[in-house]
Amino acid sequence: MKRRVVITGMGMITSVGTGKEEFWNNLVSGKSGIVPITRFDASELTTRIAGEVRDFDPLNYLDKKEARRMDRYTHFACAGSRLALEDAGLVSENLDPDRVGVYIGSGVGGIDTLEEQARTLINKGPNRVSPFFVPMMIANMAGAHVAINNGFKGPNLTTVSACASSTNSVGEAFRLVRDGYADIMVTGGTEAPIISLAMAGFCALKALSTRNEEPEKASRPFDKERDGFVMGEGSGILILESLDHARARGAHIYAEVAGYGATCDAYHMTASDPEGVGAAKAMELAIKDAGLLVEDVSYINAHGTSTPVGDASETIAIKRLFGEHASKIAVSSTKSMTGHLLGAAGGIELIACALAIQNGVIPPTINYEHPDEACDLDYVPNKAVQRDVNVAISNSFGFGGHNATVVVKKFEE
């Protein structure tokens, strides 16, 4: 018998705030976290802005020796996981370690370490490359450290599906709990791509906004003058728990995870299918998995990256699936404030969905100033709206054509 799965904790490290209260308050107030890059000299790049996490100190979450042996993306994962476990009241709980797993996705893993050690190799020779290079770089190490730090011995897996990584991770973690393979899953995503190599690569792709003189207005999903996405960094971690387990310990429940769908466009290595077929199918599968109808959905946290083709394609996908109901759904992109966290995006955006359900408030798409005839839905422009949200979906679409959707709904006994 399939079990019900609920969200009992959340932790996030983002450019708009650390922790639930700061993150949510800034989202609903429409505050942008996009700033000029300070982590390195970006003066030669065509894009010199990003959603940097400022004033983050890993030593607030880790001891000094441990932190030195981790990449920044792992710092974010450990910090977000600690916040989520504390929020769920699980830090001092007497848990069965074999029944607690960790699924944390990342699109690029320890690329900061990769860049640093490549420079060391070139400038100082192979004998100076750190013995910690490989275990700091590989993409599974964030989830591994979360498990090591907490003694969690259940299933542990890292999903790498570009910008769909954390949504895939949450969806697969949901299935594990639903099907009885774990009682608790620590899941979501983490990313730290604001380095010269990654930024140069995305600049070469011409994927990033070049609105350097007004960074807070650069990410403008669905706006006619959008010119590319803005890189972000951080983590979004959720605690998924079987309803029976959560009830037994009197846990606070934010929302119920109800369904998950995943597809592939099989179309192009970077471009989404302009007809939105795969994206629509992922949403359809997730809603069907939840046992719901398309008419039940009242909010979509869109992938909405602020790219000309991607936003139009997602709009087409929504209209393809929802038909006349599409015009009645609130569709917003919180990337307009946080930037695009690549493999961590889906984690923080599913958190935004759960908080929208709990608070009855839908966060806005800021910088929506010029309507685009190719994007003609209700994008909750510029200001949050108060609205009862019973069912919300979070979309993530990644390079390679990966599409993933998770459905959450208001928890009812």
Could you characterize the architecture of this molecule?
The protein has helices at residues 20-28, 64-68, 72-88, 111-124, 133-137, 141-150, 165-178, 196-204, 243-248, 277-289, 308-322, 335-338, 345-359, and strands at 5-14, 17-18, 35-36, 49-50, 100-105, 156-157, 184-191, 234-242, 255-264, 299-301, 330-332, 361-362, 385-386, 391-398, 402-409. The radius of gyration is 20 Å and the shape is globular. Strand 14 (391-398) and strand 15 (402-409) form a beta hairpin. The two termini are 18 Å apart. Helix 3 crosses helix 6 (141-150) and helix 7 packs across helix 13. The protein has 413 residues and is an alpha/beta fold. It is built from 13 helices and 15 strands. The strands form 3 sheets. Strands 1, 2, 5, 6, 7, 8, 9, 10, 11, 14 and 15 form an 11-stranded mixed sheet that branches. Strands 3-4 form a two-stranded antiparallel sheet. The protein is 33% helix and 19% strand.
